[in-house]
Amino acid sequence: MPSFGKSLIILGLIIAAIGVLFTFAGRFPWLGRLPGDIYVKRDNFTFYFPLATSIIISLVLSFILWLFRR
């Protein structure tokens, strides 16, 4: 069962990192406004898809998880 405990610790660290990200997200005005994020604004319609931001966050999280698995 040691792997279950390690998994819980990693999950806790990920949740804590997401909490820190949400706390300090206002201090990073470029987050969510990268070139590659799709933003369409019409008269009564707004569509926003943070494509580049999602890719960068995915890469960072994948790297962090890769470090924990080593």
From TrEMBL:
Membrane-spanning segments: 7-25, 45-68
Keyword list, A-Z: Membrane, Transmembrane, Transmembrane helix
Stretch forming the signal peptide: none
Pfam family for this entry, one: DUF2905
Protein name (database record): DUF2905 domain-containing protein
Organism, scientific name: Geoanaerobacter pelophilus
